[in-house]
Amino acid sequence: MKRYCNSLTRYARRNSCAVRMGGVTIGAGTPVAVQTMTNTDTNDTAACVEQIRRVTGAGGRIIRLTTQGVKEGRNLGEIVPAVKEFCPDVAIVADVHFVPAVASVAAEYADKVRINPGNYNDKGGDFTALLEQCRERGVALRVGVNHGSLSKRIMDEWGDTPQGMTASAMEFLRVCKEHDFDQVVVSMKSSNVRVMVYAYRMLAAAMAAEQMNYPIHLGVTEAGNADEGRIKSAVGIGTLLADGIGDTLRVSLTEAPENEIPVGRILADYFEGRESEGCDEPDVEGFSAYEYSRRESDTVGRLGGQNVPMLWSEMTDEERDGAVIIEATGKNPVGEWRRQVLEMMAQGDRRPVVLRRHYSDVGVEELSLKAAADFGVMFIDGLADGLDIVCESVAQENIDSIALNILQASRVRISKTEYIACPGCGRTMYDLQGALEIIKSRTTHLKGLKIGVMGCIVNGLGEMADADYGYIGAGRGNISLYRGKELVKKNIPQEQAVDELIELIKADGLWKDE
């Protein structure tokens, strides 16, 4: 497979063509754009316009609305003009899922239409006709692949794998290329950060092999909220931005949409100005970019070998003295760390590796995002055994919490419950944000458990990935509970649903008292 980036150690952004949507242009070296999605009912014009006003006030200029049906698609005709009265340079994106015919309706009003290839394939639809409609009106298109909703044909051949996600995207991109339609953006989202990273890398490599340079939209689906959601997103998005991949991004939080914009802006801005920084990489075998493979190292106490990665505060003097401590001091920490670790691998040096970086004059949120974007990729790629985040302006307790969240998001050390929670949209008909907070308050002590908290069934069941339990919206104020992907209880009133979830966990023998 062709390389997914030009260099593992020298930073350069991937080349992409310019795509224009409304008053926004992405790709072709423009700054990475940040976007979000409304969680209001698309049929409620006033609510959508007011929420978009808050998002634009926070600096958002690309805003997506769910258009699950023709009625919602038509109502964009009311929403779009109202929004452009107070923000003419905004880009309004229609999100189409199950009904391909809705895409052609939405394309009459939106600046960009997002389709899900999995649903589009299984439901039919004339993709070529949609391209011509978009070309005629100057509408951009996003081919948005979701890990949890691949078509049956792709699943039968590839399963729900990064390879399957790449095959799904490339089918549609080849049609775009054949018809000389270049106003297309592509995304490869998953709630599993490893799957997300490998899928995007495979996509970049596949597009390079076929001389495609369409812009790439980055995102981790169902990241959750608070620190965990921010760090999980930053690990996945930061891993790709570190290699110059990504022209636009969304940090999907189970919070108000306007909260996503400043978080995404910190991540995007963090990678500005890195062009040409770094060193040439050594020639080494054993590095895997498309599946998890941990670098082989000797064991020093509890550090290295097959032990889970450690925090600096947990290590003994013996463990610290037996490790190689690699401190990154420049603007391209990933390039610095990779070069030295790859050199060690080439030389057969098996000592454990501890990564260190110093951050100055930052608060907790900024530290968590920057550290996750820096360190996460090294653990996704299995190249480190420990980490030392140094920041005098943040308490050590908070630093350790950030470090554990980075390791958990990278799926190399599980220290608490993982929540796979969507941000909600116009399809959500219950208090998703409130439910997530209650579920977290009652279950966060269950180490190693994965709980999906999803707004609706559209992507809910698929995007829960490997969750042990699912709490999914089933209608107005009602919830369905799942054990894995098995429906256990249906249409439970939300007021009872959390208790029912806990009883289900207890019945399975997985409950532990705090």
Structure description:
This protein has 514 residues and is an alpha/beta fold. It folds into three domains: 19-270, Alpha-Beta Barrel (TIM Barrel); 299-409, no CATH class; 418-507, Sulfite Reductase Hemoprotein, domain 1. The chain is built from 17 helices and 21 strands. The protein has helices spanning 45-57, 70-86, 100-106, 117-122, 127-137, 152-158, 162-178, 193-209, 226-241, 260-270, 317-321, 333-347, 364-380, 396-409, 432-443, 457-463, 494-507, and strands at 19-21, 24-26, 33-37, 62-66, 91-96, 112-115, 140-146, 184-189, 217-220, 248-251, 299-300, 303-304, 310-311, 324-328, 353-358, 386-390, 418-421, 450-454, 469-475, 478-483, 486-493. An eight-stranded parallel beta sheet has the order 8-7-6-5-4-3-10-9. Strands 17-18-19-20-21 form a five-stranded mixed beta sheet, with helices on both faces. Helix 1 crosses helix 2, helix 6 (152-158) crosses helix 7 (162-178) and helix 7 (162-178) runs parallel beside helix 8. The longest helix has 17 residues, at 70-86.
Q: Per CATH, what is the topology of the largest domain?
A: TIM Barrel
Task: Count the E strands.
Answer: 21
Q: What structural class should be given to the helix and strand makeup? A: alpha/beta
Query: At the first level of CATH, what is the class of the largest domain?
Result: Alpha Beta
How much of the polypeptide forms β-strand, as a percent range? 15-25%
Mind telling me which CATH architecture of the largest domain this is?
Alpha-Beta Barrel
* CATH homologous superfamily (4th level) name of the largest domain: Dihydropteroate synthase-like
Roughly how many Å apart are the termini? 48 Å
Count of folded domains: 3
Biggest sheet, open or closed, and with what strands and sense? Answer: 8 strands, parallel
**What gyration radius follows from the Cα positions, in whole Å?**
22 Å
Please state how the strands of the largest beta sheet are arranged side by side.
8-7-6-5-4-3-10-9
**Nearest-integer average pLDDT:** 91
Work out the helix count.
17
Shape: globular
Report helical residue fraction.
40-55%
Low-confidence stretches: none
